[in-house]
Amino acid sequence: MIERYLGFRQRLESVLEDSLHQEVKLIALADFQGLDIEGFRVQEFKKDSEVKLPLWIAAELIKAGIVKFKEGEEIDLKMLSKLHWIEVIQPSRVLSPLPENFYLKLKLYLDELKARALREIDKIEEYRKALMMAGDIVSSRLRKVMELTLTRQTAQTLSNLTIEERILYEGLRDVVETWRNLYWVGG
Length: 187
Prior knowledge:
Elements: H1 2-21, E1 23-28, E2 35-37, E3 40-42, E4 50-54, H2 55-63, E5 67-69, H3 77-89, H4 102-119, H5 124-148, H6 155-158, H7 163-183
Antiparallel strand pairs: 1-4, 1-5, 2-3
């Protein structure tokens, strides 16, 4: 059982690592002279130019106020509100599609918004609202993933799972199947 848990954790960590290295489109908020970071060269760029960088570098430059996600690449309150509305009205076993790297981008958005709320009092309410909606979305999706593990699912049903949710689903399904095989009298 420990090996299964370690394999599950390693798969999630691998997905996180892959996500951090995916390139995202950004808009420069300031001129940037370039920089070498951990063996990676960030080329110089001018204010208002579009740049593509790995997400792990983008996150640091966003925190520093040097770049922002290009429209459509980021999670913001408007997108979160839309996803929240869709997720809440969906039937219990229906998952709506989420943007690529949703969970990582959501974490980056909430971290950045929290930092801004600590500096700008008018951002506190936006942060609270975003945190509440994010919690609802995550809880709803976790509940749906757990419900899906209790019955056999088609590829179509599982197609809207994010990669992280797919790993969770497969891990939970393995645990449920093991339990059923060991203890369920009707099986």
